[in-house]
Amino acid sequence: AAGVIQSPRHLIKEKRETATLKCYPIPRHDTVYWYQQGPGQDPQFLISFYEKMQSDKGSIPDRFSAQQFSDYHSELNMSSLELGDSALYFCASSPYLAEQYFGPGTRLTVT
Amino acid sequence: AQSVTQLGSHVSVSEGALVLLRCNYSSSVPPYLFWYVQYPNQGLQLLLKYTTGATLVKGINGFEAEFKKSETSFHLTKPSAHMSDAAEYFCACSTQGGSEKLVFGKGTKLTVNP
After folding, report:
1. What average pLDDT score do residues B20-33 get?
2. Do A47 and A58 meet the contact criterion of CB atoms below 8 Å apart?
3. Sign of the alpha-carbon torsion through B3, A61, A39, B44
4. Rounded to whole angstroms, how far apart are CA atoms B51 and B28?
5. Closest chain A C-alpha to B92 CA, distance in angstroms
6. Cross-chain Cβ contact B45/A102 below 8 Å
7. pLDDT computed for residue B11 by the predictor
8. Alpha-carbon torsion A59, A77, A50, A96, what sign?
C-alpha cells in the first residue's frame, strides 16, 4: 500500500539558512498535517491543510510557512534557521474525518 | 483544550510478560484516542484507535486498549511481550476522528528483556 512520502529524509543546514521540506500524501487523502518532534520529545502540531486551504495552525514560528499544492503535496519552508529548529519533521495525511498516517520524517540538523 | 498524560516514561518487561502502558486524557468534548508506535529513526505507526462504539479496541501486533470514560483512561495492553515490541509508544487524542490535530502524550519507551 502507498505511504506518505517525505523528502529529503535528512537535511543539514547552517544557522540563518533556508530549508524546504516536501510531503507527498497517500493518494486520495485530502488533508495534510505537519508535526515537529524535538530530541526526546513528543510530536508537536505545526499546521494542517484541507483541500489546499490552511485548516489549523499550531505553534509554528513566523519564520516557517507552508502550503498545499493542486496535486495535494505540501511543502514546509523554514527560513532564518536556528539551532533549536533541529528536529524530526513529520508529515501525516488522512482522508477527511479519518485517522492520520505518518511519513518517515525528515531529520533536520542545523549547525 | 485537550491533553494527554502517559504515566511512566520508561517501562521494562520480560519477554512473555504482560505489557501495560498507561494513558489518561483530558478533553472537554468526547475524544478520539489513538496509540502510535515509533521504532528508532522511523515514523509513527498507528497501532489502534478509539472513535465511537465498542470501548475495547484491538490493534495490530496483538495490542489492545480499553476506553474508560469514568477513569478518562485509554491504557494499552498486550498479554505477552515480544522482543520486537521494544519501541516508543505515544498516546494521542483529537476531537474528530483524527481529522483535527493530534495532541500527543510525552511517550513511553518500552524495553523488553530476554
Report:
1. 90
2. yes
3. positive
4. 15
5. 10
6. yes
7. 97
8. negative
Segment among A94-98, B80-84, B86-90 with least mean pLDDT: A94-98
Percent of chain A scoring above 70 in pLDDT: 99
Q: Which three cell numbers stand for residue B88?
A: 516508543
What cell numbers appear for A62 in the block? 513566523
Characterize the bridge pairing of strands B32-38 and B87-94: antiparallel
Asked if A99 and B90 come within 8 Å (Cβ–Cβ), the reply is: no
**Which residues of chain A have a CB within 8 Å of the CB of B106?**
41-42
d(CA B96, CA B33): 10
Distance, in Å, from the CA atom of A95 to the CA atom of B66, rounded to the nearest integer, reads: 25
Which amino acid, B65?
Answer: A
Q: How far is CA A31 from CA A41, B10, B56, in A?
A: 24, 33, 28
CB A50 within 8 Å of CB A56: no
Each as own residue / partner, the long-range contacts of residues B5-11 (CB below 8 Å, 24 or more positions apart, any chain) are B5/B105, B5/B106, B6/B89, B6/B90, B6/B91, B6/B105, B6/B106, B6/B107, B6/B108, B8/B108, B9/B106, B9/B107, B9/B108, B9/B109, B10/B108, B10/B109, B10/B111, B11/B108, B11/B109, B11/B110, B11/B111
Which amino acid would we find at residue A66? A
